[in-house]
Design brief:
single chain, about 200 residues, alpha/beta, Lysozyme-like, two-stranded antiparallel ribbon, 8 strands, about 25% helix
């Protein structure tokens, strides 16, 4: 299967040559969201106090990345990070900027993370995807002094201004939170495939 346009651009160094580099050490790279799909800001660490979890609606993250990267995105949506089923992580919006992912009030104070999964088809996140996301969330919580609890690590559906079923019933919150608490053991090692 041919690589999507954004992956070819990333692999060629196109984005890096334009100054787009990921803040997260284990990200595959930075694929910039279109400027219409996020709000340039200068948020300080004190301005960020939660992480919002999303699913894309399909296991292939290419559609979500393409949507966030184009100015033809009618909903003008984006997220800071996208996590694929194989554990790959791509950054799309700088953490200081406001991604458009959970309503303006939540966007002002949160980091948004999309995951390739679907409620409609029952395609749940994979174990390596949960682990990869957990390590990312642990990194963000450490960086921004965000408590490791369900008050500060939320699903999109838990934000009062939304009516989405996201990440929905297939998201294993108990297992995910356990991984977030355990993953401090892996802060200087490659991502774990299993414990």
């Amino acid at each position: 299967m041919a690589k999507p346009w954004w992956k070819r651009a990333l692999d060629s160094g196109h984005y890096a040559r334009r100054g787009h580099s990921a803040e997260y050490i284990w990200a595959e790279g930075f694929v910039p969201a279109a400027t219409t799909n996020f709000t340039e800001s200068n948020r300080s660490p004190a301005d960020i106090d939660r992480v919002v979890i999303h699913i894309t609606g399909g296991v292939n993250i290419s559609s979500a990345v393409s949507t966030f990267a184009t100015s033809e995105n009618a909903n003008r949506t984006s997220s800071h990070y996208v996590v694929g089923q194989d554990g790959e992580v791509y950054q799309m919006v700088k953490e200081k900027d406001r991604a458009h992912h959970a309503g303006s009030s939540a966007n002002r104070r949160s980091i948004g993370i999309e995951h390739g999964a679907s409620n409609r088809s029952g395609e749940s996140p994979t174990d390596i995807q949960y682990w990869s996301s957990a390590v990312l969330v642990r990194y963000l919580c450490n960086k921004y002094a965000i408590p490791l609890d369900r008050t500060h690590i939320l699903g999109h559906q838990e934000i009062a201004t939304t009516n989405h079923n996201c990440p929905g019933p297939n998201w294993d919150w108990a297992g995910y939170m356990q991984k977030i608490r355990l993953c401090h053991h892996f802060t200087s090692l490659p991502l774990p495939v299993m414990l």
